[in-house]
């Protein structure tokens, strides 16, 4: 006798269960504090026209605001998806035990052809002559028989119609169609599920890293604003009464902007945390299929899991793109005290700089400048070129803050990006260890202030790769209003040491390069 046991039940139930009614979510609503409860539970828990979050975060919702609380679609989809995968979890789908007629039936004996509750399953089949009977969940019994031929079990998978069929189906409706035994078809689906499991685990690791980064970013954001507010308070404390009104105005501006930034971070945090929960459900449901020995159950939900996984994957990639926040700084403007009375209305200002919050950290938002030659449609490949650095000389109207260099390459090993000044002396460099074997954009982090006549070059120390280029000339060409470039080449025989002079010459090969600079 075999009675399948659901794994990870406690963890799974926690994700889809309201902490107030201890049942699966019904119309789940999410609070500003990111906690979720059933809509009716919120209404029933009102006291003096207010609902206080029971999870001790001091979040209070007025009665008039309850209807405006957004639906937690992730929680709702988790409940709907799980009930679709396992209808036996739905309390509405009630069938009585055919042995005692008192308790709800959860199992089915194939030999007896009887619906049984858990108690009767154990008691009846403890008898020796019944111990060879096969016990399956009641939901599996419903899924095992053909809906058109109620006496026939599903035994085949129609590859043309992509559906389960019985013997009679193959004789009539699916005559002349190609088919596979359910076991063979299920083995193929199981192999695909194993690949999906690996992808889900990878996404889960990234989301956990993203969640940690988001929490650190929130704390850092608080620290940054707290520090700037202290600076503003210290300055205005010395200016006494004349500056008091201005001080309050600037602090309020900081607080207002902080609310906007924290809202973005909180929303992103909520998306990451909710999607992280969803990975557990995805992992659980796929694992349930992988652990199942019933090919019917595996095939029945193949399309459902595949469609759900595609939506889940699309949501994950949107989250993985990160979010943009503003960092706010108080600019100190010390003037002579005798002139402060006239300057009081315009003294001090709040400046903001855009940052990108991604799973691996918080970085300044940059804009890409594509230095590659674009007039020639033909793209060639430079390969197996050792100790030759290629790049561009920059003609700038205004200096730019460089954050990284991107090159279209398939090099495996070190890639060095470096900057030379107007005298071709090395002023900065960055190194990345590339493991990429396909031709794609590889990013080399290099931070440097680019000035007029500076050069940006990339060196692959080894010859085990290539990068793309287009034929060019030795003339400057315009990239944007501030920047023009021309192709350059440098032979590097020795180790790159900051301050060392290099020989940089003109070059007609315009390699594919993008530089990321601050806005």
From TrEMBL:
Ranges of residues in domain B box-type: 92-138, 141-182
InterPro entries per the UniProt record, alphabetical: TRIM45/56/19-like, Znf_B-box, Znf_RING, Znf_RING/FYVE/PHD, Znf_RING_CS
RING-type domain: residues covered: 18-55
Pfam families: zf-B_box, zf-C3HC4_2
GO molecular function terms attached to this record: zinc ion binding
Gene3D superfamilies: 4.10.830.40, Classic Zinc Finger (3.30.160.60), Zinc/RING finger domain, C3HC4 (zinc finger) (3.30.40.10)
The entry's keywords: Metal-binding, Zinc, Zinc-finger
Protein name (database record): Uncharacterized protein
Native organism: Adineta ricciae
């Amino acid at each position: 006798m075999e009675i399948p046991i659901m794994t990870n039940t406690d963890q799974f139930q926690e994700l889809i269960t309201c902490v107030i009614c201890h049942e699966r979510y019904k119309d789940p609503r999410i609070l500003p504090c990111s906690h979720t409860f059933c809509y009716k539970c919120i209404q029933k828990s009102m006291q003096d026209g207010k609902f206080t979050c029971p999870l001790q975060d001091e979040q209070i919702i007025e009665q008039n605001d309850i209807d405006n609380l957004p639906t937690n679609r992730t929680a709702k989809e988790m409940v709907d998806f799980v009930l679709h995968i396992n209808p036996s979890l739905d309390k509405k789908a009630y069938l009585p035990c055919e042995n005692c007629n008192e308790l709800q039936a959860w199992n089915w004996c194939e030999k007896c052809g009887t619906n049984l509750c858990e108690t009767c399953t154990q008691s009846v089949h403890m008898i020796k002559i019944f111990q060879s009977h096969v016990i399956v969940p009641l939901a599996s019994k419903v899924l095992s028989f053909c809906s058109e031929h109620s006496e026939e079990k599903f035994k085949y998978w129609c590859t043309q119609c992509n559906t389960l069929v019985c013997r009679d189906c193959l004789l009539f409706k699916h005559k002349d169609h190609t088919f596979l035994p359910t076991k063979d078809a299920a083995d193929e689906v199981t192999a695909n599920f194993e690949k999906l499991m690996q992808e889900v685990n990878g996404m889960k690791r990234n989301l956990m890293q993203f969640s940690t980064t988001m929490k650190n970013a929130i704390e850092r954001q608080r620290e940054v604003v707290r520090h700037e507010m202290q600076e503003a308070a210290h300055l205005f404390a010395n200016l006494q009464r004349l500056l008091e009104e201005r001080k309050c105005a600037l602090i309020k501006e900081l607080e207002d902007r902080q609310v906007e930034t924290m809202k973005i971070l909180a929303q992103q945090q909520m998306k990451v945390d909710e999607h992280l929960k969803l990975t557990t459900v995805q992992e659980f449901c796929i694992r349930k299929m992988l652990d199942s020995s019933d090919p019917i159950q595996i095939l029945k939900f193949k399309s459902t899991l595949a469609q759900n996984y595609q939506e889940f994957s699309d949501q994950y990639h949107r989250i993985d793109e990160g979010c943009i926040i503003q960092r706010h700084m108080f600019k100190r403007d010390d003037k002579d005290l005798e002139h402060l009375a006239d300057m009081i209305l315009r003294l001090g200002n709040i400046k903001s700089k855009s940052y990108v919050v991604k799973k691996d950290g918080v970085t300044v938002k940059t804009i890409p400048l594509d230095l590659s030659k674009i007039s020639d449609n033909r793209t060639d490949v430079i390969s197996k070129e050792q100790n030759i650095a290629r790049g561009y000389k920059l003609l700038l109207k205004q200096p730019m803050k460089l954050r990284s260099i991107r090159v279209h390459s398939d090099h495996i090993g070190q890639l060095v990006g470096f900057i030379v000044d107007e005298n071709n002396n090395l002023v900065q460099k960055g190194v990345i260890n590339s493991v990429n074997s396909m031709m794609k954009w590889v990013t080399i982090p290099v931070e440097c202030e680019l000035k007029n006549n500076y050069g940006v070059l990339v060196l692959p120390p080894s010859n085990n790769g290539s990068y793309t280029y287009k034929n060019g000339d030795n003339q400057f060409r315009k990239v944007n209003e501030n920047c023009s470039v021309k192709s350059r080449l440098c032979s590097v025989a020795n180790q790159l040491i900051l301050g060392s002079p290099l020989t940089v010459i003109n070059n007609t090969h315009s390699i594919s390069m993008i530089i990321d600079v601050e806005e």
